[in-house]
Design a protein that fits this description.
By secondary structure, the chain is of the alpha/beta class. The protein folds into 2 domains: about 5-165, 2-Layer Sandwich (Nucleotidyltransferase, domain 5); about 170-215, Ribonuclease hii. Domain 2 (Arc Repressor Mutant, subunit A, Orthogonal Bundle), CATH 1.10.10. The protein is about 50% helix and about 15% strand. The chain contains 9 helices and 5 strands. It has helices at about 30-35, 45-60, 70-80, 85-100, 115-125, 140, 145-165, 180-190, 200-215; strands spanning about 5-10, 20-25, 65-70, 105-110, 130-135. It has a 5-stranded mixed β-sheet. α2 crosses α7 (about 145-165) and α4 crosses α5 (about 115-125).
């Protein structure tokens, strides 16, 4: 039976914390097992449901590769003339795929141009003949990608909890729309610089406002 790899990320949008990527390798004959445990796009599940599925998915999968991309790595990609968040995701995907050596890979595509995204990844694969499927909403359509999305999301949630314990502060979900995150960002943007994505407009806005405020105090 063919080895199928699903690739998905969690945490593209937050201003705080890492983006986590997961490549999950499954024997094609075991995909019905993923359907039996009712894997879904991680966003359609509660944290408790995701945690409950985490170990069950790991048991079904042959292998998993996890990449935790720090705010600094994300900022460096966005400040580079040659990269953006999509290309960083694609490069990371290719590295994980090369380690897993599947017969087919299915990715949830972050780019509007699925063809260009698939081509960009294929250029970086050791196996140039590998079948690459890049689609929008792949995490809804393909169980192997749904499973990867759950592993990525649970891993990211755990990383966020580690950060909260480390700085002994609750900053909410880390997303710019979260009022707890907004308040924390406003009060701590310079206190914990390592946890923020400084290229995010929400961070830059606060930093600029505080800079203007400090100028006004002179």
């Amino acid at each position: 039976m063919a080895l199928i790899c699903g690739v998905e990320e969690a945490g593209r949008g937050p201003v705080i914390g890492p983006m986590v990527m997961c490549a999950l390798l499954v024997d094609e004959k075991d995909i019905p097992k993923l359907q039996e445990i009712e894997v879904k796009d991680s966003k359609l599940l509660t944290p408790k449901q995701r945690e409950g599925l985490f170990d069950r998915i790991k048991e079904i999968a042959k292998k998993t590769e996890i990449a935790i991309l720090s705010p600094q790595e994300i900022d460096a990609a966005l400040e580079s003339p040659d990269l953006n968040l999509n290309w960083l995701e694609a490069i990371t995907s290719a590295k994980m795929i090369n380690k897993l050596k599947p017969d087919k890979v299915i990715l949830d595509c972050p780019s509007n141009n699925t063809k260009a995204y698939a081509s960009y990844i294929r250029e970086r694969l050791n196996d140039k003949e590998l079948e690459v499927v890049a689609e929008h909403k792949a995490d809804v359509k393909y169980p192997v990608v749904s499973a990867a999305s759950i592993i990525a999301k649970v891993t990211r949630d755990r990383e966020i909890e580690k950060l909260k314990k480390k700085i002994k502060q609750n900053f909410g979900s880390g997303y710019p729309a979260d009022p707890v995150t907004v308040e924390f960002l406003k009060n701590n943007w310079s206190k914990y610089p390592e946890i923020f994505r400084k290229t995010w407009s929400s961070y830059r806005k606060v930093a600029e406002q505080q800079f203007q405020k400090s100028l006004g105090e002179y």
